[in-house]
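Just curious: can you write whichever protein you like plus the matching structure tokens?

***
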Amino acid sequence: MQGLDTGTSNTRNLATNLWETPALLLCLASFFWALNPIVGRAAKDLLSPVTLAFWRWVVALVFVLPFAWRHFRADLPVIFGAWRFLGLLGAFGVGLFSFLVYQSLQFTTATNNLLLQSTMPVMTLLMPVVIFRERLSLIFLGCALLSIVGIVWILTKGQPGDLRWNALNIGDILAISAVFLYSAYATFLRRAPAMHHLSLLVALFGVGTAALSVPYAMHLLITGLTVPSPTAVASLLYVGIFPSLVSYALFNRAVALIGSGRVGIYMNLPSVFGVLMAVPLLGERFERYHLIGSLMVVGSIFLSRRVKN
């Protein structure tokens, strides 16, 4: 019994340390997010973008509700008092954002999608300056630019001169729009009213699901009901649990700990993880440019953590 109690205590301490360590929170969230465009691209012929987006948040809501219900009921007065703010945050930062991600993957590759996420650090640094008149540290901007250079280095195979932004297609434009929405979500998240973190997830997931319910219903009227394949169901379960419930919870906690500006530096990690996972998943080779680009991104994160607020 003593050994069991010790093991339980160690597990609880590990979970507590994780919950108080923003770097680990963001690394885990980034890892799960990295697989999201890969799964979305793989499932593009099995599930429509609106179907994938709608059921993503339904699954996340179903899994979080049993743990959150007690806190959610207690926080209802706060939620009703901030319904406009939470409604906009959930509709755009959850519902529309996820739809744009999956819609973009109908027209562009998962690699391109990951590359375009490299604009997020700059957006999350500049938005508070424009919206909240915050001062921007030059070293934070330098860290964001170093992170972007690392991503471009990886995805151009060490030949950044080969990057042609004028070759963007409609899928790339949708992906950039999604990145803009999530950057806005991260910026305004700091203004969320004080409530339990699970209550916030339920509120945002509920709004995101509601925002997608009308376009999803219209989609069903046009296409009719179909029985999903096991692969489609597995895809829905993954995107509903890991890049949705788990990643959003970890990300929201990290923003609460260190703010959206510092969090933005980490938002190139999904791109790094995504490219590195292509090695075992797609049989690609790990080249020197992978190592150099990854070191740039990790270096930018290391430098940002050494800067005091």
In short: The chain has one domain: 26-305.
